[in-house]
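A quick aside before the break. I want you to see a complete sequence-to-structure record at least once, exactly as it would be stored in a machine-readable document. Don't worry about memorizing anything.
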Amino acid sequence: MKLFFSAFVLLIGLSTVSFAQKGVLKFKEETHKFGKVPQGTPVTHEFTFTNTGSDPVVISNVTVSCGCTTPVWSKEPVLPGKTGSVKATYNAAAAGPFNKPVTVYSNTEGGSISLMLNGEVVPKK
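That is the input. The structure line, written in tokens, reads:
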């Protein structure tokens, strides 16, 4: 009986820990549409987020799909209820439509989230 009770308490304890809320990134938007962009004119967008969780959020890395996009992000821990940002600049060198992912890695439950930049680079007149 003691073994059953001990196992039951351990199971309840582990369940409680697994449901504990961590830091949560809540972005105002996850996709930004630039529309038509003149060729050779870099464009930048700042994605802002709020930590809606109970623990500080730390962004460990931000990756992009090519060298045509440059990310900059909040390096300090973002406390619960506070805001941070991920800024991405697209160089707009090649004409044509673009759809570029910006992947944010952090200590949140899911571990990563993908943001998107899209638009169309048009030749300068």
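Two observations worth writing down. The first strand starts at residue 25 and ends at 27. The beta strands are 25-27, 31-38, 43-51, 59-64, 69-73, 83-90, 96-106, 112-122. We'll return to this after the break.
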